Structure formats: structure tokens, C-alpha cells
Amino acid sequence: MILDGRKTADELNLVLKEKVSLLKSKPRLEIILVGNDPASLSYVKGKLSTTEKLGMVTNINYLDEHVSEKEVYDLIHSFNHNDEVNGILLQLPLPKHLNSEMLMESIDYRKDVDGFHTINQGLLFQKKAGIRPATPKGIMMLLDHYGIEIEGKHAVVIGRSQIVGAPISKMLLDRNATVTITHSKTKNLAEITKQADILIAAIGKAKFVTKDMVKQGAVVIDVGINRVDGKLVGDVDFNEVEPIASYITPVPKGVGPMTICALGYNLYELYLKQRGE
Ligand SMILES: Nc1nc(=O)c2c([nH]1)NC[C@@H]1CN(c3ccc(C(=O)N[C@@H](CCC(=O)O)C(=O)O)cc3)C=[N+]21
């Protein structure tokens, strides 16, 4: 069965829209986009149209690819101190001359819609309330929407990035899954992934997961967004794996729309916290 991220996001967005309509003002997100990478542009435009439909405001700050670090820093600083700004998103990746770690850390964690700030990652690590990274949060919302059981299941995560692999592992663990994290140095990868009841593919390599790596009846979540000959391809060989999976996310219309949906929920949460609601 296909886990339809687009349809689920639409439904959850409707719920969010209702909540947003009850607020005194519109939550506002500032996106900082450096350079003109076409993939980043298209993603940011998706975000823009979604938030507008939800009754929230998104401003995109287009910066030249040669912008100085200080200019980006100063812009973030001004948003940190502007009470009308509820969320700040610094679109990654940044050009090499900019220190993305330093710039991400300069975002006030109370406006960190991505949940990438050290404080938010620490709150996740300590199982305390905080903003969760959008992609893992979107995946959890998708699993829950379809009523997929997590407790006691063996979840295998391929990839250990700070953005997806590490936080999704912790979030699954906190829901009482038994979690195995695998990565580029893992030996006998297929032997491990074949044990997964829930398999999360977050490698960044097109069609990396083939059917010999998947157990019959597994739930397969494909986090990959790879562009091959102008087409979007996931980290999972969908045609091969779909027949043996009990549930599987497609690319596009799987995890991508859920990420954007989770960002909307994060912005709403930030707004409430900032207003002391
Ligand atoms: N600070 C930051 N936060 C991010 O959340 C972030 C980022 N930087 N940098 C880039 C990645 C990528 N990302 C996507 C989200 C949704 C889709 C999405 O909705 N994709 C559609 C297809 C869109 C298309 O056709 O291009 C889908 O999968 O159906 C894609 C990519 C968020 N990112």
C-alpha cells in the first residue's frame, strides 16, 4: 500500500488551517535563500504556496550567491530581534564560503522552525518538549496517520545525518521501537536492513535500496530526493521494492510534502510559545 504523503499533508494542513484561523495574527516565516540553485528555488516556492493557503505569511529573502557571511548574520540577527517574525529558515546547502553551522546556531532557537539548533537537538536528546526537525516529524505524522504500529518493532535507519538519520532514530526509539542505525561504514548492510519491520532510507543515493535488502511486509520510508536526468528519484528502487512492502512512500508525493507540513506545524508551535499561549 502506498503511503500518500501529498494526501496526508493536505488533510493535516486543513486541521492546521483551522487552528491558524483562530490566532490573533498570522504566523510569519522568513526564508533566507542564498544563490539561485533551481532545486532550492522550487522547494522554497512550494513552501511559500503552502503557508499562504494555511493563512500564514512567508517572506523569501533572496541573497546573491557571493553575499558575505556578515550580511547573512546581520539579517538573521535582525529577524531574531523582530517580534513580528515567528520563524527563520536558512535554506541549506549554503555556498562554501559561508559557515552554515555558525549561521544556523545564530538563529534564535525559539525561532528555529527547522529544529536544527543545538538547543532543539539537545531537547530531543533529553526527550523534552522542543521543535523537532521537520522531515523526521513529518515521517512520524505519516506513520501515525496510517495507524502503523511502532512500539516493539525493529526500525532500521540507513543514514546518520543530523537532519534526518540521527533525529528519526531518536524519535522512533522514544516510541519504543528497537532501532538500528546503519551508515556508510556498516558491514553486511543488507543482512541488517532485511531484519527491518520499518526501514528508513536516508542515504542520498538514487535507488540504493533494492528488493534483496527488504523483508517481505516491511514498511519502507524513502527520504531521498535525488534528481536523475531532471526526474525526482528516491533512495529506494520503488518498482522493485513496492511489491514486497506492506507500506511504502513514493517519491515525489511521499516524505517531501510531509516535511513541508511539519514545518507549518513547527511555525504554529513557535508562534504559540512566543505569545505565551
Ligand atoms: N533549512 C532547510 N530546511 C529544509 O527543510 C530543507 C533545506 N534547508 N534544504 C533542502 C531540503 C529539501 N527539502 C524538501 C522539502 C520538500 C520537498 C517536496 O515537497 N518535494 C516534492 C516534489 C517537489 C518537486 O517536484 O521539486 C515531493 O516530494 O513530492 C522537497 C525537498 C527541504 N529541505
Q: Layout of SSEs?
A:
Elements: H1 5-21, E1 28-34, H2 38-53, E2 57-63, H3 69-80, E3 87-90, H4 100-106, H5 118-125, H6 134-145, E4 154-158, H7 165-174, E5 178-182, H8 189-193, E6 198-201, E7 219-222, E8 226-228, E9 231-233, H9 238-241, E10 247-248, H10 255-274
Parallel strand pairs: 1-2, 1-3, 4-5, 4-6, 6-7, 7-10
Antiparallel strand pairs: 8-9
5,10-Methenyltetrahydrofolate binds next to helix 2, strand 3 and helix 10.
Q: Could you explain how this protein is built, in words?
A:
With 277 residues, the chain is of the alpha/beta class. It folds into two domains: 25-110, Rossmann fold (3-Layer(aba) Sandwich); 134-256, NAD(P)-binding Rossmann-like Domain (Rossmann fold), CATH 3.40.50. The strands form three sheets. It has a five-stranded parallel beta sheet with strand order 5-4-6-7-10. A three-stranded parallel beta sheet has the order 2-1-3, sandwiched between helices. The chain has a two-stranded antiparallel ribbon with strand order 8-9. The chain has helices at 5-21, 38-53, 69-80, 100-106, 118-125, 134-145, 165-174, 189-193, 238-241, 255-274; strands at residues 28-34, 57-63, 87-90, 154-158, 178-182, 198-201, 219-222, 226-228, 231-233, 247-248. The longest helix is centred in the C-terminal third of the chain and has 20 residues, at 255-274. 5,10-Methenyltetrahydrofolate binds at residues 42-43, 46, 89-92, 114, 134, 225, 232, 251-253, 256-257, 259-260. GO terms for molecular function: methenyltetrahydrofolate cyclohydrolase activity; methylenetetrahydrofolate dehydrogenase (NADP+) activity. Residues 3-114 form the Tetrahydrofolate dehydrogenase/cyclohydrolase catalytic domain. Catalyzes the oxidation of 5,10-methylenetetrahydrofolate to 5,10-methenyltetrahydrofolate and then the hydrolysis of 5,10-methenyltetrahydrofolate to 10-formyltetrahydrofolate. This is Bifunctional protein FolD. Belongs to the tetrahydrofolate dehydrogenase/cyclohydrolase family.
